[in-house]
């Protein structure tokens, strides 16, 4: 059975089709949930919430554009919805000056460590950092998605970068001291 037929069967609440869609896309969507969640358990909860939303709204998918892209948008929005209600953002004026980019020497910091420290950022910084740096959204888009102003998005990105830079510098210092 092709993807189009699976989608159509999901629209009539076919649990076998829903199970197949879950099997096909759960690992990709879980990685998105993990990126935006505080921890593994919360990512699992967010994945389940995302699939509930997906199956409740699947009749809205009209086979125009990528189904996977549609799933990813719903997943990101589902995770972000949790944070919108928690009011994790502090409001910053729109004229906030953005800090410079941080260069990361990929030979001295492995990707697993980098992903770990990103996940450990406070919610407001982690969400903006991931949306801007990892997913390529503009500050205008982020402000709209998170119901904050553009200055808050810029401020939270700058603060995330500062925290990451300091954490990476401490990591490098510790590693170089251990190698002595």
UniProtKB/TrEMBL annotation:
RNA polymerase sigma factor 70 region 4 type domain boundaries: 112-162
Domain RNA polymerase sigma-70 region span(s) in chain numbering: 22-87
Pfam families tied to this protein: Sigma70_r2, Sigma70_r4_2
Entry keyword set: Sigma factor, Transcription, Transcription regulation
Gene3D superfamilies attached to this UniProt entry: 1.10.1740.10, Winged helix-like DNA-binding domain superfamily/Winged helix DNA-binding domain
Superkingdom of the source species: Bacteria
PANTHER family named in the record: RNA POLYMERASE ECF-TYPE SIGMA FACTO (PTHR43133), RNA POLYMERASE SIGMA-70 FACTOR ECF SUBFAMILY (PTHR43133:SF46)
Family: Belongs to the sigma-70 factor family. ECF subfamily.
Protein's recorded name: Sigma-70 family RNA polymerase sigma factor
Taxonomic lineage from the root: Bacteria, Pseudomonadati, Bacteroidota, Flavobacteriia, Flavobacteriales
